[in-house]
């Protein structure tokens, strides 16, 4: 996994969002790691 401060390429961002979409409805995967991944992806999306 990349360090959060690095800018991910478009493919990595797409894979990360697919992972989040797949895990969102799976109750066994709703844990701190998924939450941190969501925050990281959200930061990438909302940053200028």
Short characterization:
By secondary structure, this protein is mainly α. It has 2 helices and no strands.
Describe the structure.
The protein contains two helices and no strands. The radius of gyration is 11 Å and the shape is globular. It has one domain (10-46). The N and C termini lie far apart (22 Å). It is mainly alpha-helical and 48 residues long.
Helix content: 55-70%
Q: Please mark out the parts with pLDDT under 50 across 5 or more consecutive residues, or reply none.
A: none
Overall pLDDT, averaged? 73
Number of helices: 2
Structural class: mainly alpha
What is the domain tally?
A: 1
- Strand percentage: under 5%
Rg is: 11 Å
User: What's the quaternary structure here?
Assistant: single chain
What is the 3D form? globular
Distance between the termini: 22 Å
- Largest sheet geometry: none
Compute the number of strand runs: 0
Order of helices and strands: HH
Task: Give the SSE map.
Blueprint: H1 10-24, H2 32-46
Any key phrases for this structure?
about 50 residues
């Amino acid at each position: 996994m990349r360090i959060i401060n690095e800018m991910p390429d478009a493919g990595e961002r797409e894979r990360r969002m697919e992972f989040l979409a797949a895990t969102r409805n799976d109750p066994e995967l709703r844990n701190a790691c998924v939450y941190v991944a969501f925050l990281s992806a959200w930061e990438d999306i909302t940053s200028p």
